[in-house]
Design goal:
Bound molecules: pyridoxal-5'-phosphate
Strand order of the largest sheet: 1-9-8-5-4-2-3
Structural class: alpha/beta
CATH class of the largest domain: Alpha Beta
CATH architecture of the largest domain: 3-Layer(aba) Sandwich
Number of domains: 2
Largest sheet: 7 strands, mixed
Strand content: 5-15%
CATH superfamily of the largest domain: Type I PLP-dependent aspartate aminotransferase-like (Major domain)
Radius of gyration: 21 Å
Shape: globular
Oligomer: single chain
Number of helices: 13
CATH topology of the largest domain: Aspartate Aminotransferase, domain 2
Distance between the termini: 28 Å
Length: 374
Amino acid sequence: MIPPVDPAAEYAALRGEIDAAVAEVLASGQFVGGPHVAAFEAELAAFLEVDHVVSVANGTDALEIALAACGVAAGDVVAVPAFTFAATVEAVVRAGATPLLIDIAEDDFAIDVRALTAALRTGNAVRAVLPVHLYGHPADMQALLALRDELGFALIEDAAQAHGARCQIDGAQRRIGGLGDAACFSFYPTKNLGAAGDAGAITTGSAEIARTARLIANHGDISKYEHALADGRNSRLDALQAAILRIKLRRLDEWNEARRRIAATYALGLADANLRLPRERAGAESVFHQFTVRLADRDRVQRELRERGIAAGIHYPRAIHQQPGFARFAAPGASYPIAEQAAAEVLCLPMYPLMKPEDTQAVITALRDIVGTR
Ligand SMILES: Cc1ncc(COP(=O)(O)O)c(C=O)c1O
């Protein structure tokens, strides 16, 4: 079977280094926080070209804590895309705010800035906007930053799938992570930078947001057993995860390049196949967390690929308002046709940096055969 992702291959490639780091941490007796956590935060900050990194226990906590650190509280409204992983919207609800669902753009699966602008100009006041860089492709940050500067909301990015992605801001290539007020990363094992368990981080250019986030994530503790907050929590990074993430961070550029090469091979091999290929906006550099094609008869194609030993994923089979838990957030009379179409059509082909070239070719051959060519 060609798997959709292969985190075990990453461990196999780095086994000597990871085993040594794990043994060192176990022998040190320092399991939460400590030198590996501090070093990982500094190294990730350098990689992402951002001033502050606050490590937390997972990407969902990163979102929830970043929202609170940016001042989002009960009664606030936060705009979110209608097509994303549930955690994006869940975090808004857990922060006590109300999500305002906005349809996605046809070409990049990210929040549609025109639809967002229209919603904000017709009386919706939002405390924050939470774009998602879905599948590793940056949302239209140039347009979102301009809108933020005009309307004054907090711009908090869900970068859980976009470690290392770049986009053009005022003509310069910039990494996702240091653009909005704060960005939230997940290091779930299958992510572009994946831990051996759950882990996450908040990045920000603001010392104040970083300080508040760190306070919230560690019981509001300002010095040993002096607590400045009553509603702090425990969301910290384990030393074992930090040690492993440091090793993998050194490969991230190389492995993102490998993903981009696989994406280029897919795009070339499937150029005349009866499906829609993903596109990159001019100036944007996706890190292809997923390579997502669109097909009218997606479920049949997924089934037939599986019969040929190829596991393709569906991320995600429902738009947010089509989820039982979130249906109540659909605005009365609003529709989200692009999000619904994406949920019906997306198919994510196997994509991981250590994918064998013959496996990429096998996926192309099978898919061309199943869907036919023009
Ligand atoms: C877009 C998006 N947001 C948020 C999350 C939540 O991250 P975590 O699983 O680390 O809590 C994920 C990943 O699972 C994600 O893909």
